[in-house]
Design brief:
Layout lengths: L18 H6 L2 H17 L30 H17 L5 E5 L20 H8 L1 H8 L4 E4 L17 H11 L5 E6 L3 H4 L4 H11 L3 E3 L5 H16 L5 H20 L8 H7 L3 H11 L3
Length: 290
């Protein structure tokens, strides 16, 4: 989206960290930013953005979230997160709220190890869950799970692999009916204790509708697909569960692909769209709050 985790470099508009929006406290600015971002993404055929980060930055020393978080207060993250969802999805780009059930108060980097969040359930409901509830109200297309251990919710399984958290909490209690995606299963928080294919089966069993395997290693990705097929054949994953996941994907595609198809622009049109002056002006406005 911006700052240190930005995948689309110049000639795309280069955006400041999302913490600038939190310091601005301006939902209108957040929505204008998201609209501009979505216009540039659709110009090259991208229809899903793994954003916004909905983690509440209650730990300033958090090594993995940091200034990717919108704000330090749950209510501010909720307000700005909804604005970004409106901006992205209003332009036909599906948004993804992450990292459920909340990665903001961790002191470990889940790329390297499994973080632990030991807050009681009352605190989680009052802080960590608040932005995700707001995102669900805003009809966010997808939500991504976090690789962390929350003993108040499940003292055995990381959130991504926990049926109590993915199905019991997110799907049933919070009433989310969109697409649930795992974070990258090759991150050490998961891969240290599980093979990627085993983790994929556990994630889908927990209630994820899709899993991320991001290294680009075709052999690993193939092994994941094979493991999922075998899990269905062995009836470890029920056909009902798989069919329901497929239906949620189909509904999301109907919502964002059929109604507003993304067709990459010609070279001349791209030059007029990517990094255009009005978008750079929004980035400059955000940067004033750096």
């Amino acid at each position: 989206m911006g700052g240190r985790v930005a995948r689309l470099k110049a000639p795309f508009t280069e955006w400041p960290p999302m913490a600038t929006l939190g310091r601005s406290a301006d939902a209108g600015l957040a929505e204008r930013f998201a609209r501009a971002l979505a216009i540039e993404m659709k110009a090259v055929g991208v229809t899903l953005d793994y954003a916004p980060v909905l983690d509440v930055r209650t730990n300033p020393g958090n090594p993995v979230i940091g200034d990717r978080a919108l704000a330090e207060r749950a209510e501010d993250v909720a307000k700005l997160g909804q604005a970004i969802i409106r901006g992205l999805q209003g332009q036909g780009v599906a948004a993804c709220g992450k990292h459920f059930p909340g990665h903001g108060d961790t002191s470990a980097d889940s790329h390297l190890e499994l973080p632990l969040v030991e807050h009681p359930l009352e605190r989680l409901r009052g802080v960590e869950f608040v932005p995700f509830k707001a995102a669900i109200e805003a009809q966010v297309a997808t939500i991504m799970t976090a690789h962390l251990l929350m003993p108040a919710l499940d003292d055995t399984r990381p959130a991504t692999l926990s049926k109590r958290i993915v199905t019991g909490l997110l799907r049933n209690e919070l009433g989310y009916n969109g697409v649930i995606l795992s974070d990258d299963l090759e991150m050490k928080a998961i891969a240290r204790d599980y093979t990627v294919p085993d983790a994929a089966v556990l994630a889908v069993e927990a209630g994820c509708d899709g899993v991320l395997v991001c290294s680009g290693d075709w052999e690993t990705q193939g092994a994941v697909l094979e493991a999922l097929v075998h899990a269905v054949e062995d009836q470890r994953l029920s056909l009902t569960l798989v069919d329901d996941a497929l239906k949620r994907h189909e509904l999301a595609k109907e919502r964002f692909l059929l109604k507003s198809p993304a067709r990459p622009l010609t070279t001349a049109a791209l030059r007029q769209t990517l990094g255009r002056d009005e978008h750079r002006a929004i980035a400059d406005e955000m940067a004033r709050f750096a």
